[in-house]
């Protein structure tokens, strides 16, 4: 990595990504380190069970511990403290900071004020690089990262997770198919960037034609809030749901992923199939974050 | 124990119970183990200071650590995630899961979806087996578990704690007296089950006649919400309050218990008497939960 | 210390304070102890990011761990439990208790009911002794504690922090200047006590004349809520704000402090000057609380 901070998946070269995934695989295989005495500061300015618990687990699995800023409504933030001040206080407590914030750019701003490593755990419509890394890890474990065909389906317009993953995949030899209703297509600028990166990108409004080609199908939720009309939502969402029947047309080794939580876009009968990898995917957050934290805390030690 | 999960006190034989209480007594006497690296997942779908803090303490006293799902209103649950999905994610983080949930049957359901041990820490009107075990531990430490006479007083209609304890006591040679207002008597089905188990059960509307016989008096709160009429509540609740004066008619070695929190059903002047064991009872949650966790994590290790 | 509990800075002699600060300096310099197995109970009956996270960090830096009562709205307190009952339960979980409570006198009350050390982390308008100790530590590190001139500016009427610090400074050879609007002067009884202690105390309505003499300038926030009239607030608050320009009239080695969070009473351009010590001050909470906890847990061990 070129930086002490991890703000965006974009800052990671292919070699960086592979180094992190290799290290994650070691932790997954039982590798142990002893970071007794190291503290990770958890600064979550908006709720996030999944990500917060995963970082908490990763740090504790490394032998270290965490200190939590607590919910914003019980914090100094409510008294009008700036983000810059909050993180400058927390850097006195912790050896690294994980930051989740509703405003795009928050992690970059925070990183400019502190001397400990900052890890972006999601900044509004911005980046969430550890999600991208655990997605890549899951794809690599199941399908490899080269010469694969990936389908990404659902809300492609607002999905931060999807944009980062698509961008990261351009570093690898992956064909990408985007499946969504017309109203939730990839934004023009994301499409443009993908084309500029030389990605092999195709868009579809239905899964049917492309499904048999896919090594990986990444499903995301279509949110009710995106539709003014409830009937339109129901009709659209219904077309982008999958169940065990849908997957009969897929390759036997198709890997189905989802960033979770799901509501009903993947039926429960898929859980019983060999295609289901979304729970593994969530679990992979632990070794991936262990690898990252172990690496970034080392850099911190060297300062 | 016949199961990897602890859902109900009913699944514990007398021998199981005694094994757990014996082990708890060892921890109480200073026994130490080193579970460094073991993580307990805390999934509390409704608030519970007492139980959560007690499990957190027990796991840390074993040398392990905990990871907390956090409050439900900041979790994926709010986005519509099912209980089955939530626990399947958490099993990737933790070596065992403690679950508190407002719906009866939640712990059983959760246990069907995960491979790590699930401990029920209360599921609505259902079971709360570790409360029962710490109650039994406290009775055993103070009065023994055989050839004793136990009085249980207060709200016997809605009290989950009381039903489990009464049922568990049928495994031992304990006479049971139930003292409550007519409107808050033991439910018919609980009475039936106790009779079926061959328990020596008697019901009273007042404490006075039975008090001198008791080795243990277990007091529970009568909740205002149970009464449509404030005056009726006050009158009824007043009759089931005890103070130091009340206890003058009791045996010198009467053990008074209460699951806490109390409001005013036990007057503060009882705290100064040798009868008061309700704080010890709360503290006993730690060695009892240490014993359980140590045992269940061993089973987990063997899998 | 004469007591097992730390309720008020008043109970600390000059020798006590110096012993704690000396020990804090050792921790600051990298001294390590191993309190594995010791648990600190965090009982925060009102929100406090800064103080809670600092105690949490301090205990973990000592090698120990913490157990948290959680927010009051999810606790037994909401069911009507008394403070005395709550702390008597928590003493069964933890080796020492940190208590923050909205009511003055709460820490004293709590300390009367439990056998583990209680540390007051703020009780309403009452005391907050660890804040005073970290303030003294910061002053000592930067200006020494003898033969210094300290200015305290802002809301001197309601500021608990300010009253404790002023009182503590009377044990040392420090001149004290109080700078505030007329309506927010030191309360009469605080002034009286300071005079009785033989303190060299002067009051001002402006900073200008006294600034060049100061070794330390302690700034506090003037709260909007203190003023019925928004315009009056703006005018008053504006006069007690400092920026880099203001400080050109100060000594080169002036130490500027603030208990944080700040809103705008210290402009961001001060952060870049050598005067800025308010973030260090927050960080100093960790070694100071490590020193206190290490000392009080030793006393606990001896019991």
Automatic annotation (TrEMBL), chains A, B, C:
It catalyses: carbamoyl phosphate + L-aspartate = N-carbamoyl-L-aspartate + phosphate + H(+). L-aspartate binds at residues 79, 160, 221. Carbamoyl phosphate binds at residues 50-51, 100, 128, 131, 260-261. It comes from the Archaea. It is an enzyme of class 2 (transferase). Pathway: Pyrimidine metabolism; UMP biosynthesis via de novo pathway; (S)-dihydroorotate from bicarbonate: step 2/3. The keyword Kinase does not apply. Its EC number is 2.1.3.2. Keywords: Pyrimidine biosynthesis, Transferase. GO terms for molecular function: amino acid binding; aspartate carbamoyltransferase activity. Heterooligomer of catalytic and regulatory chains. Belongs to the aspartate/ornithine carbamoyltransferase superfamily. ATCase family. Catalyzes the condensation of carbamoyl phosphate and aspartate to form carbamoyl aspartate and inorganic phosphate, the committed step in the de novo pyrimidine nucleotide biosynthesis pathway. This is Aspartate carbamoyltransferase. The lineage of its organism: Archaea, Methanobacteriati, Methanobacteriota, Stenosarchaea group, Halobacteria.
């Amino acid at each position: 990595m070129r930086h002490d901070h991890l703000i965006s998946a974009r800052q990671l070269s292919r070699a960086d990504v592979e180094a992190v995934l290799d290290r994650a695989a070691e932790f997954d295989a039982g590798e142990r380190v002893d970071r007794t005495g190291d503290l990770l500061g958890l600064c979550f300015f908006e709720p996030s069970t999944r990500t917060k618990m995963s970082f908490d687990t990763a740090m504790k699995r490394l032998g270290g511990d965490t200190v939590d800023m607590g919910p914003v409504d019980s914090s100094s933030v409510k008294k009008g403290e700036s983000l810059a001040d909050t993180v400058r206080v927390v850097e006195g407590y912790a050896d690294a900071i994980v930051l989740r914030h509703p405003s795009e750019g928050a992690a970059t701003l925070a990183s400019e004020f502190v001397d400990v490593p900052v890890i972006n755990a999601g900044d509004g419509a911005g980046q969430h690089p550890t999600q991208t890394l655990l997605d890549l890890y899951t794809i690599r474990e199941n399908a490899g990262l080269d010469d694969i065909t990936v389908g990404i389906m659902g809300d492609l317009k607002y999905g931060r997770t999807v944009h980062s993953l698509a961008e990261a995949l351009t570093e690898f030899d992956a064909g990408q198919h985007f499946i969504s209703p017309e109203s939730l297509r990839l934004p023009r600028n994301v499409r443009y960037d993908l084309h500029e990166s030389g990605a092999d990108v195709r868009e579809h409004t239905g899964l049917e034609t492309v499904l048999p080609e896919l090594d990986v199908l990444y499903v995301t939720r279509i949110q009710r809030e995106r539709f003014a009309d409830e009937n339109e939502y129901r009709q659209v969402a219904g077309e982008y749901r999958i169940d065990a029947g849908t997957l009969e047309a897929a390759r036997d080794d198709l890997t189905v992923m989802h960033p979770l939580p799901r509501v009903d876009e993947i039926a429960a009968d898929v859980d019983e199939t060999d295609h289901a990898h979304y729970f593994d995917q969530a679990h992979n957050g632990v070794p991936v974050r262990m690898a990252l934290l172990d690496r970034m805390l080392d850099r911190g030690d060297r300062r």
